[in-house]
Amino acid sequence: MNEVIETLLNHRSIRKFKNTKLTSTQIDCIVEAAQQASTSSYMMAYTIIGVTDDSLKASLAEVSGQPYVKENGHLLVFCADLNRQTHSAPPEVSLKMKENLENSEHFLVSAIDAALAAQNAAIAAESMGLGICYLGSLRNDIARVDELLALPPHVIPLFGMAIGEPDHLPDRKPRLPKQAVYFENQYQFHDEAVQEFDKRIASYYQQRSSNNRSDTWTQQMHRRFSKTIRMDVTDLVQKKGFNKR
Ligand SMILES: Cc1cc2nc3c(=O)[nH]c(=O)nc-3n(C[C@H](O)[C@H](O)[C@H](O)COP(=O)(O)O)c2cc1C
Q: With a cut of 50, which residues of the chain have pLDDT below it?
């Protein structure tokens, strides 16, 4: 155990923040840590947008339906970005590059690069005593977020991150047992490990300090995938020049 591992194991999403803005030193430190994440073939295929304009924050909060998108110390939006890659290429080169740039491989590359940078940002913030919450809810209306942030072709919003001084300390949420997610050499499925987790999570949901309910992880997943959500994402993604082939 060391301080880094302690920070990692102490993670819980924070959804209520004190009314204190992050300092520019804190923001710079978080962004620098994000930038130092590994990046596929040195592509750095992401952009981070810090939202400082209150009315823009309010519009993003409206898309997400979550108050902590507006009420936090700082709001970041992580975007997949392949826009820089073709810059200043002659038209015939740019055309040739697009064939490759717009495939599924580079959609994955840019989303993975952005996620790695984001998780570095999260750990950096948490190591400073701040709390974070990722915000996939910005994809409730991905086209509106794309427009609000004035993103050019080959740039799409992926998720946000609210950061700030925690104003609550939620329970740490249990994770699947190691036997359910870590296998050696070949894939295995351990039904018992998931069943055991369901029992554990049912009692966690019954006993936790807020928002307690009767539920299991398996039931949650069945509910989640039984109804379609955000079916407009494919359209926007492809319109912006990602994942076209
Ligand atoms: C990419 C991503 C998007 C998320 N989007 C949201 C969100 O929109 N709203 C929210 O309240 N939590 C969001 N979360 C937080 C998860 O719900 C949370 O990490 C998960 O339930 C585990 O809880 P914990 O982080 O407290 O351990 C998101 C997490 C990730 C990784």
A: none
